[in-house]
Amino acid sequence: MLIERLHDIGLRAWHLQTSSLASVGLCIGLWIRAKTVDQDERGNAERRALFVGLWPPMLWLIGDSLHQED
Description:
This protein is mostly helical. It has one domain. It is 84% helix and 0% strand. The two termini are 14 Å apart. The mean pLDDT is 94.
């Protein structure tokens, strides 16, 4: 039902798969940035990078479901 609705509004599999790959890059960028911040702020910066690191599999699987819908 949700996948059909996403397909109906014009979202395609490649949109989400590209977003998945971009979020990998964002995660790496945030992780590198976490190594450059002050020790007091480092924990929060690392948690932010790990949170973004959870996005790629979710986005990729939603994109895969949309691909099956096509």
